[in-house]
Amino acid sequence: MAKRTTLIHWLLLMAILLLAxxxxxxxxxxxxxxxxxxxxxxxxxxxxxxLLQRLTVGFHNPLYFFGLHFWMDLAGQSDWAIRFxxxxxxxxxxxxxxxxxxxxxxxxxGLLAALILAVNPFAVYYAQExxxxxxVLALSLGTVALFLLVLHRNRFVHxxxxxxxxxxxxxxxxxxxxxxxxxxxxxxxxxxxxxxxxLLARWLLAHLAVVVLxxxxxxxxxxxxSAPSWQEPVPFWLLLxxxxxxxxxGEVFPFASASRLAIAFAALFLLGxxxxxxxxxxxxxxxGADMRSLNSTDRRPADRGNWPHSLLLPIYxxxxxxAMxxxxxxGRGILEKYITVALPPFxxxxxxxxxxxxxxxxxxxxxxxxxFRYLPPLLAAGALGFILATDAVALHAYYTDVRYFRHDxxxxxxxxxxx
Length: 419
Known about the structure:
mainly alpha
């Protein structure tokens, strides 16, 4: 029975990955590059020396542009090939979120989170854009997943990978720093709670190595931080609302019901936050797995109120959101895509809400007549169905509604070339 369950589990994961591939590759080059994509390709097409010179006087970090430069040398400069570079990183994020969800909350949470990210219209939109946001998604998520592995296994190769991934985050986008900052804060909180204290020396050395690796670009980062904002600032509450709509419905959702659907997503999100709380204190309530059971023979349940990683997801989610609010209050304009690092914990929180509806309601209806015991899985299936159906509608609009296609610079260039 155990082998059969494991086989079904891996078949479901493979199906989710295939679905994610299909959604990201479908109509990949249907729409023209828009202005920012065109500038990105123009920069990345430059010789290495010229590219570095341009980036040092601009506002962008260099890693994505250099990666795209060498990718274009290998794959060519067709729209499809250039955007596939982003597709690769967006795809990489799906199994990474599965691994993180499985490490924190068990297999079912990992599968649900991977499925929700696979079909997320915001993730699909930026997977099909020749910009750095899909790379931010994968690298920041990889940093968090690897840091959890570092805390659990404490091997040199894992620390080395953490240093490399953290540095890659910083060299990709300034806002990608929120993921390693969240992990640093989590470690400090866990240290104060008496956990992970033997790792302090390695933790300090790892972050010192990151500082050394990022030092050549630090002057540029400080210049960008001190430069005036080019985006119009908006009230922080409106920014939070815009993030909720973008993360829930994507960048294209041309329907009047968008606000009501976003409120429903907010309700599920709050339920998932309740799942975080319950999991940290009553792991048996939410069907959670103690981290020790992942590679240990110790199968005892986690101590009540002291589950080892109960604060990781809340901190991972809160740091980019609170930083965004602080920047908005300081008068800086922020675009929703800048905090792409918050999308994985958002999806994982939605996955927890689905599981909460099943596991918690089973306890509520445990003493009810038998027909009522079918209600919890039906509620969970309904919540998941709502998420998937809404995402399907949003993706259909993104793929087919020409009113919201990117500007047709391809057609303009063809017209100029023929006249």
